[in-house]
Amino acid sequence: MLPVSGFSLSLIKRFAHSLVQCLKLLHRENIIHCDLKPENVLLKQRGSSSIRIIDFGSSCYVHQRVYTYIQSRFYRSPEVILGLPYGLSIDMWSLGCILAELYTGYPLFPGENEVEQLACIMEVLALPPHHLLIAASRRRLFFDSKGNPRCVTNSKGKKRRPGSRDVASVLKCSDALFVHFISRCLEWDPSTRMTPEEALQHDWVLSSHASTISSSPPSGSERRAGVVNGGPAGHPRRHGPITQDSTEDENNYTLYKVYKGKRHRDTNTSVAESGAKQDTTTNANTTTTTTTSTALATTTTTSNTGVNGNLETTSTDNSLDDSGTFLPPIL
């Protein structure tokens, strides 16, 4: 399997700043999105890093929680998995998973089911605090009577040992601030997890906000994805369908489509280079733009419009538990 490369860190920073601004507004109104994932983040237009968050179909107010089965599996918070009361902090967990995935090109916690999902989390974050397990209504699904994690082997014969990895080793990133930001989003205890307000004051976000103009050209993988100015430029050539039921829509270009399309092009480019001529890609100078508060206000106010407008379906299965269509085969 060919390696998959993620987006550049500077582009991820711009996405992160916009996402955190939106979460801040949602938190101020006591609204939980409940299903943050790359498929639910739209680029406002080609060639721009301004985004919209969509699909508020699972959303609720903090004091009016209806569902217990929420969030797509790869982005599902431990309190939801364990059957603990959940709140605004579950969206911050999803944010950390999304940003890590955009950087590496792979899911951070790629569980094949809920049992392995928690095993994936424990592999990186070690065992959950005792006080969380005591209050968890679903703990017996994941732990034996002595509090030991149930042994699970996935379809590829892989077993995951708690605490055998850490966030830094998974990300393989030299930016310590980015690693710390992700780690703060992925706190076991929701009460200590970073809030949107704290995220906006984090050194990694502040440094990205201060340097919104980048003079470096886009990476090769981003050029193949058509990513210029933090978004997909023009009409990048497609070598095949993105998903079985996806359609081209000029106004609704999701991170899912950029990412999936980039992987399609990366794979086909490598094949073409080994045996045939290949079309050359024009390098574009990158001039990134800052997503302002006004744009973020538009992000939030247009989200419901997107949902009511019946945006494209990017998954071959409407089940919340099926988030695997966005990602490459699990290692």
Automatic annotation (TrEMBL):
Gene Ontology molecular function terms on file: ATP binding; protein serine/threonine kinase activity
Transmembrane feature ranges: none
Composition skew (Polar residues), residue ranges: 306-322
SMART domains, per database record: S_TKc
Protein kinase domain boundaries: 1-205
Any Pfam family the entry gives: Pkinase
Keywords: ATP-binding, Kinase, Nucleotide-binding, Serine/threonine-protein kinase, Transferase
Keyword Nucleotide-binding: yes
Cellular component annotations (GO), alphabetically ordered: cytoplasm; cytoskeleton; nucleus
Region described as Disordered: spans on this chain: 210-331
Family label: Belongs to the protein kinase superfamily. CMGC Ser/Thr protein kinase family. MNB/DYRK subfamily.
The protein's name: Dual specificity tyrosine-phosphorylation-regulated kinase 2
Organism whose genome encodes this protein: Chionoecetes opilio
